[in-house]
Amino acid sequence: MKIFLTGGSGFVGRKFIKEALKAGHVIYAITRKNKKKKKNLIWLKGDLDKDWSRYLKKSKVLVHMAAAGVNEHIDLEEAINANILKPHKLLMNAINSKCFNWIIIGSASEYGKQAKLKKPLSNKTKEFPETNYEATKNLFTKLSISLSKKYKTKCRIMRLFNVYGKGEERSRLWPSLNKALKLKKNFKMTAGNQIRDFIKVEHAVDILLDSLNFKKCNKSFPQIWHVASGNSKSVKNFAKSYWEEKKGKGKILFGKLKLKNYKNYISDKKSIWKL
């Protein structure tokens, strides 16, 4: 299958490319930097709003992973431009190029303040985004759904929950734990009361690759699915069990870092894409 991909340089995107190539897919991937072509991997230098019709016409599916503001604060104007306006041009380009199968990577953070409750989130939960990132991601979800209905495309919104693993941003929990383990130091963190649905990047990518099969779960489109493990646990328990598994020499010092207004990302079982 020929796949048109955005966000291929990111944490999940890099793993997706690796596994998609193993599965025999051909990938056209947008990049802002010069990169060498590999067998079945064609890097295309440019931004989302460039005319990509030449490649979209050849592609069976569009996989849109690119997003701005995931790990840092982003101002509203930049967020609107990166997460709504430019991707909108890409979708219109896909429509005009008759590329009608879409995988849009969403985020559990779109649920916003709903995640402050210790209740499972479903794909029918009403979203109340709070940050610029959450709001623009959710607006683009709504825009994708609207365009899908209007132009009768097959659109799947695949909402990532707490994906972790090799290649993750170094400031995040799992890489920070590994750094402390390697240095045999104590690890300072929050009390860890927040609940998360942690999913290994390998598992998440398996789900995304499986979702490329538009003959599966095809009763109606557009769709929203969760990319989650279904096994929610507190951050404290996640850190503690991983530390014990790796036989950490130091101690985890819970409560040494303060965290206000934390959110709980718990997926209900029915909304999770099943392999």
Could you characterize what this model shows?
Helix content is 32%, strand content 21%. Helix 3 (76-96) links the parallel strand 4 (61-64) and strand 5. It is an alpha/beta fold. The chain has 2 domains: 2-163 and 198-229, Rossmann fold, CATH 3.40.50; 165-195 and 231-254, no CATH class. The model has no long low-confidence stretch (mean pLDDT 96). The longest helix has 21 residues, at 76-96. The radius of gyration is 19 Å and the shape is globular. It has a 7-stranded parallel sheet with strand order 3-2-1-4-5-6-10, sandwiched between helices. Strands 7-9-11 form a 3-stranded mixed sheet.
Write a brief structural summary.
By secondary structure, the chain is of the alpha/beta class.
Question: Which keywords apply here?
Answer:
275 residues, alpha/beta, Rossmann fold, seven-stranded parallel beta sheet, three-stranded mixed beta sheet, 21% strand, globular
